[in-house]
Write a structure and sequence with these properties.
By secondary structure, the protein is an all-beta fold. Helix content is about 0%, strand content about 55%. The protein is built from no helices and 22 strands. The chain has strands at about 1-5, 10, 20-30, 35, 40-45, 50-55, 60-65, 65-70, 75-80, 85-90, 95-100, 105-110, 110-115, 120, 125-130, 130-135, 140, 145-150, 155-160, 165, 190-195, 200-205. Strands 1, 3, 5, 6, 8, 9, 11, 12, 14, 15, 17, 18 and 20 form a 13-stranded parallel β-sheet that branches.
Length: about 210
């Protein structure tokens, strides 16, 4: 099935082989209850998002042992916001599948917690505010197709007495074209601000 819109806290129960697809969904958690996917496959649709927004206290969104797969499609994002905690607690499915580098797990003053060993393939973890990756004594493996991006002025804390294995990309940078300001001055921070839309980029000088 497909889910659009807003949902309150609770649990999702599905038969084996069933799939729930989220597309532009915000889950609002109350002050006492988290949200759990207990069975079946969860999928965030291409170009869509699943946003976890808690109440006034820390709440868990749990991908539990009975669930079989959690997939984030191209240009889709799992957004975990202010004090929310995404808990991966699945001993049979050890892979959080991101379709490609545009698939995102976005942390905004929130926590990604692995209550079992997990491998994250493809995709990007973006940390903003004060966010945490909690190993909970387990191993989180990010393969060489995965990236961790910490936004400016943000902090990402690694905790939980476990292990984070990060397969760093072997990037080779090639200069294609050199762009210079027509009014360049020493230490004006040209290139510090960049806005990109489609095939266009606007490049600013921070101290101009």
């Amino acid at each position: 099935g497909e889910s659009d819109g807003t949902s309150s806290a609770g649990a999702i129960e599905m038969d084996t082989g069933a799939t729930i697809e989220f597309k532009d969904v915000t889950i609002l958690q109350d002050a006492s209850t988290g949200y759990t996917i207990n069975s079946g496959t969860a999928e965030i649709a291409e170009g869509g998002f699943l946003k976890i927004v808690p109440g006034s206290t820390t709440q868990d969104f749990t991908f539990a042992t009975g669930a079989t797969s959690f997939n984030i499609k191209s240009r889709a994002s799992l957004q975990i916001e202010r004090n929310a905690q995404f808990v991966y607690n699945n001993s049979t499915e050890t892979l959080l599948v991101c379709e490609d580098a545009t698939s995102e797990v976005s942390l905004d003053n929130s926590t990604f917690k692995a209550s079992e060993d997990i491998t994250i393939a493809n995709g990007t973890i973006i940390a903003d505010g004060k966010s945490t990756i909690d190993t909970d004594g387990n191993t989180i493996t990010l393969d060489t197709t995965s990236d961790i991006v910490v936004m400016p002025a943000a902090t990402l804390e690694l905790s939980g007495a476990g292990t984070v294995n990060y397969g760093v990309h072997d990037y080779v940078w090639t200069e294609m074209q050199k762009i210079q300001s027509s009014e360049k001055e020493e230490a004006d921070k040209f290139g510090r601000r960049v806005a990109i839309s489609g095939n266009y980029a606007i490049i600013g000088a921070y101290f101009e």
